[in-house]
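Module 6 notes. Inverse folding takes a fixed backbone as the condition and produces residue identities as the prediction. Think of it as a translation problem where the source language is geometry and the target language is the twenty amino acids. Below is one complete input and output pair. Work through it position by position during the lab.
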């Protein structure tokens, strides 16, 4: 099987070749907001997108408009901490130049966590950037996990390690994949 680094590079190349990413982003975000889990959530966690990822800023604005509390992760030496933000002014560039919160960390429970990834399989397993931050966080997370991805990020098979934790749903521009029966 191809190694993770090569899979990331292959998928990045395919994403760069997409000519209508903003249209795809809108479809993906709309589909997500139609999911029952999203609609019923009072609290949501959203990572701000890096280049080649679905733009999540519109999702954050839609969550606020719907009256949801929005939490954004921050990378620390201990792992991920989540911080409620009330406006985009609560953000500043952090690790890998990802926008991170300037507010205090919270222990509030989060109903839906939007989990980032670079490459996915249909079972919900993902390849991220390689830091393992989300897998460690998800090991104790009790809410619903959803990944946003372009179709080109879905592969039949990816390398899986014992500590990897699959997401429950993957939303692409063409389909919503139910990855694990626990989300029923």
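Target side of the pair, the amino acids:
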């Amino acid at each position: 099987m191809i190694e993770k680094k090569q899979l990331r590079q292959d998928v990045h190349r395919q994403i760069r070749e997409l000519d209508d990413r903003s249209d795809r982003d809108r479809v993906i975000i709309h589909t997500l907001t139609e999911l029952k889990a999203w609609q019923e959530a009072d609290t949501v966690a959203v990572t701000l997108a890096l280049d080649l990822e679905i733009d999540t800023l519109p999702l954050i604005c839609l969550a606020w408009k719907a009256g949801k509390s929005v939490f954004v992760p921050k990378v620390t030496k201990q792992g991920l901490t989540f911080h409620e933000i009330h406006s985009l002014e609560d953000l500043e560039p952090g690790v890998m130049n990802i926008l991170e919160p300037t507010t205090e960390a919270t222990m509030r429970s989060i109903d839906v966590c939007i989990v980032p990834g670079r490459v996915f399989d249909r079972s919900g397993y993902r390849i991220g950037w390689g830091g393992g931050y989300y897998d460690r966080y998800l090991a104790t997370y009790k809410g619903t996990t959803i990944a946003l991805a372009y179709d080109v990020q879905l592969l039949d098979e990816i390398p899986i390690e014992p500590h990897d934790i699959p997401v429950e749903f993957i939303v692409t521009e063409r389909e919503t994949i139910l990855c694990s029966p626990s989300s029923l």
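Reference fact for the lab report: The radius of gyration is 15 Å.
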